[in-house]
Amino acid sequence: MHTWSFAGVGYCEARGAFIRVVVTGALVPKELKSRDEFDKLLESAAEVRVSRQGDSAKVKLRTKVALYTFKTTSEEADAIIKATKATKTPVVEFNQTK
Asked: I need a labelling partner for 48 at 20 to 30 A (CA). Which of 13, 25, 72, 83 fits?
């Protein structure tokens, strides 16, 4: 489900007229609170990204509809990656150092 929002009116030099500017809703990522929610959405995922920082990890799940995030431990992120590779969904890993 995509949301559309009216952003305003802009002048288009090519047309020589004012036009209505419509922007597709760049939605804020939705945070998942449980592993069960994550596992349900994993079937429809286009890509999974894992961002690690110390002992914690943030797993991002991209679907056609939205981006979902799930904050977890690094160990559970490893288990999620293993489950994701079984579904043949691409996994991208990032390691952040601070």
From this structure: 25
What are the residues whose beta carbons fall under 8 Å from the beta carbon of 43, sequence distance 6 or more? 87
Q: Could you tell me which residues come within 8 angstroms of residue 81 by beta carbon, excluding any fewer than 6 positions away?
A: 48, 50, 91, 93
pTM: 0.67
pLDDT tens digit sequence for 5-57: 445 666 667 777 776 665 555 567 899 999 999 999 988 889 999 999 889 99
Cα 36 from Cα 7, distance rounded (Å)? 37
CA atoms within 13 A on the CB side of 23: 9
pLDDT tens digits along 48-59 = 999 998 899 999
The helix (run of H) or strand (run of E) holding residue 5 is: strand 4-12
**3 state DSSP class of 21:** strand
Pairing of strands 17-24, 30-31: unpaired
